[in-house]
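Late entry, evening session. Most of the bench is empty. Finally got around to the prediction I had been postponing all week. Sequence below, unchanged from the version circulated by S.P.
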Amino acid sequence: MINLIIADPDHAARKALSLLLRRKLEVQHIVEAEDVETLICALAETSPDLLLLDWKLYGSPAPETCLLLQKAYPRLKIILLSVNADDEAVAKNAGANFIHKGASPDELIAMLKSFISNKSSTHHDALSEPQKVPLEQSQQIDQKHEGKKVSQQLTLFILLTFIWTWAFYVPIVTGGHDPYQMPWMILLIFGGMGPSVIGIAMVLLSLDKESRRDYWKRCFSLNRISGLWWTIIFLLFPLFYSLSILIDVMLGASLPEMTQLKSLLAAPWMFPLAAFISFMSGPWSEEFGWRGYALDRIMTPFGLLAGTVVLGLVWGIWHLPLFYMPATWHGQIGLGLSGFGMFMLRSVGLALLMTWVYLNTGRSILSGMLMHFTSNFTGQLLAAVSTRVEILESIFVFLVGLFACSWMLHKKQI
C-alpha cells in the first residue's frame, strides 16, 4: 500500500494528477497539498512513501527543499515536477527523481507506474529490479548526509548568533555600564545585529545562487503580502494593547502615559525617524536570521507548531543579557515571572503569529520584519504601561498565536 502526497499550488494540475493516479494506477491513499503549511502537516501526520513536489511550491528552489525534507524524512522518495526539462540534472543531484510536467499522460503514468511498482515490492521481499538496490542505497546515504548537513548548519547558526551577541553584551553587563551611553551603545547595537549578520553569512556561504536569489526576493518583495495580511500586520498589536488597556482601566487603573506618542503628535515630522529607528533596532537586525534563515530549517523536522515554539524559546533566551542591564526595558521588567516569564511566553506567541503570517504570505521574510516592527513600535508609543497591561498583552499574543497556528493545521484537515 502506497501513501502518496501531491504538493502543487495549481488546483487543476493537482486534481488532474490525483484523478489520473486513482484511475490508472489504483492509488487510493493520496493527500493533496496546495501550500507549504498543508505539506508540512501532511508529512508529519501521514508518513508518506512518495512525494510528488512541484518545483516552485515553496516559493523557493526545489533542491534546497529536498535537502530539508530528506533530513526529516530520510525514507521519503521525492519526485520533482517541473515545466523546465533542464531541471532534471539539478533534481537528481539533490537526491530526487524528476518528471517533466510537459510529458503526456501516458508517459507520466509509465514513469510513475515503474516507480510505484518498485516501491510497493519493498513492502514484501525486494525490489522487482535488484540491480537498482545499490543506487537506492547510495541515494539514501546521500540524503542522510545532506540532512545531517542541514541540521549542522541550523545548529551552527544558533550557536554563532549567541556567541556574536553575547560577546558584545557581556562586557556591558559585567562592567555595570549604561548601554545607552557611548561607547557601550556601540556594543549594544552591534550585539543586536547578531541574528541578521549570521543569517546572511549562512545564506551566502551555504546556499546556491538560485536559493540566494529567492532569499533576497522574500526579504524585500511587497507582492507576497495581500491586503488582508497588511491589515493583520499593522492592526493586530494595537488591538491587543487596546484590549489590555481597556481591561486594566475597567479594573481601576489609569490610562498609560503614552509619552512617546504624545511627543510625536506634538512634532509629527519626527514620526518617520522614530519608526525608522524602531525598525532598524529589532526587525532589521534580527529577522534576516530568525525568520529568514532558521524558521524553515527548524520547522521541517519539528513540524509547524513544535518547530515554531522551539524557535520562540531560543529567540527569547537570546535576549537574556538585556535583563541584566537596568537601563533597558528588559532590565526594568526584571527576571521574575511577570518579567522574564511573560517575555518568554510572549516570544513564543509572537513567533507563532509570525509563522502564521509567514506561511500565508508565500514565506515572506519581510512580513516577519513588519510583524516584529509593529509589535515593538506599538509598545514604544504607549509606554509606559502597567505590569498588568504587559501581562495581559503577552497572554493575548500567545493565545491568538497558538490558536492561529492550530487553526491553520485544523482547517487543512490534517
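Two things to note before I forget:
The first strand starts at residue 3 and ends at 7.
Confidence is low (pLDDT under 50) at residues 122-143.
Will write this up properly tomorrow.
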